[in-house]
Design a protein that fits this description.
By secondary structure, the protein is α/β, with parallel strands linked by helices. It folds into 2 domains: 36 residues, no CATH class; 271 residues, LarA, N-terminal domain (Rossmann fold, 3-Layer(aba) Sandwich). Helices cover 33% and strands 23% of the residues. The strands form 2 sheets. Strands 1, 2, 3, 4, 7, 8, 9, 10, 11, 12 and 13 form an 11-stranded mixed sheet that branches. Strand 5 and strand 6 form a beta hairpin.
Length: 309
């Protein structure tokens, strides 16, 4: 049943004149509520740092996520010792913009981390992220490549994954912000927010070798509290992902939200992947997370706040 809010108001007023209208009004109200958005996602186009700030502003500002004297963890993709133009890592301007907003909101410490695939020192340097954050006081960039950084996390509702070693700082921080870039991926089709969580686990290879990777990603997302996801789609590596080289397009868009499934569902639409448009339900780990009730992938249930800067 589809009914607009205007129709609802008119119908309610008319029914109010009739005896016994209460049950009908209740049914109409329930129908309207069922069609109401269940998630809000910001989608901002323009210069990447300004678009990042605007996207967070549309969600209530960083103060809605970061409290005074809190510890914040940012998880960009900085796994590859590849230059910025390759678009395989989160753009350093996006990372620095989010870190600066966290400090302005009162954070006492911001940790920027990833479990890198290429040698850590080269990843931090060549990605540009270490340099971009170097002037920000109390912002620390590091590679979580040693087992000392990890602790075992039980996954109560996991279907494929029942436990996993996760970076301790992710579990003990006050605010965890996921900062992926938008890329194609040979195994999962795309790598956006939830796929980016593989950079907080110790044994990345197990996701490929020992589990259904798509269900394991959904399981991981069910056990980690993500305060905010900000997808850097200022560029999109539409072929050759995740390591490149490949075709890089420029959607010039930042997508942000608190529902990790909804954010990924919206982000899928920023580009053609391997020359084809992809619907959220075609990405198996997004569909798996939706089925687990971690958020919504139904675009009609997502309020998209759009802006340009």
């Amino acid at each position: 049943m589809h009914i607009s809010r205007r129709t609802f108001i008119k119908t309610s007023a008319a029914c109010g004149l009739a005896a016994g209208a209460g049950p009908l009004i209740s049914r109409i109200a329930a129908a309207v509520a069922a069609e109401a958005p269940t998630a809000t996602v910001a989608s901002v186009t323009g210069a990447r740092a300004a678009a990042t700030r605007k996207a967070v502003e549309l969600l209530g500002g960083m103060e809605a996520f970061v409290k005074k004297d809190s510890r914040v963890v940012l998880k960009p993709n900085m796994s590859w010792a590849s230059p910025i133009a390759s678009a395989v890592n989160t753009h350093p301007e996006v990372v620095a913009a989010v870190a600066a907003m966290c400090l302005a909101a009162g954070a006492r410490e911001v940790l920027v981390l990833d479990h890198t695939i290429h040698p850590p020192e080269k990843c931090l340097q060549i990605s540009g992220i270490q340099q971009a954050c170097s002037s920000l006081r109390n912002v620390h960039v590091y590679a979580a490549n040693h087992e000392k950084f990890y602790t075992k996390l039980a996954i109560a509702n996991g279907k494929a994954l029942r436990s996993v070693d996760v970076v301790k700082d992710v579990l003990t921080c006050n605010t965890f912000i996921n900062l992926p870039c938008a890329k194609s991926h040979t195994t999962t089709g795309v790598t956006l927010g939830m796929k980016n969580l593989m950079g907080i686990v110790l044994n990345r290879k197990a996701f490929h070798a020992d589990f259904d990777i798509n269900q394991a990603l959904a399981d991981l997302a069910s056990a980690v509290k993500i305060s905010l996801t900000v997808v850097d789609a200022s560029r999109a590596l539409t072929t050759g992902g995740p390591a490149g080289p490949g075709l890089v397009t420029e959607p010039k868009t930042i997508i942000a939200g608190t529902d990790p499934v909804a954010v990924d569902a919206v982000a899928v639409g920023v580009a053609e992947w391997y020359g084809k448009k992809m619907a959220p339900e075609q990405v198996q780990h997004i569909a798996a997370a939706h089925a687990m009730g971690l958020g919504t992938m139904q675009l009609e249930r997502i309020e998209i706040k759009r802006a340009a800067v």
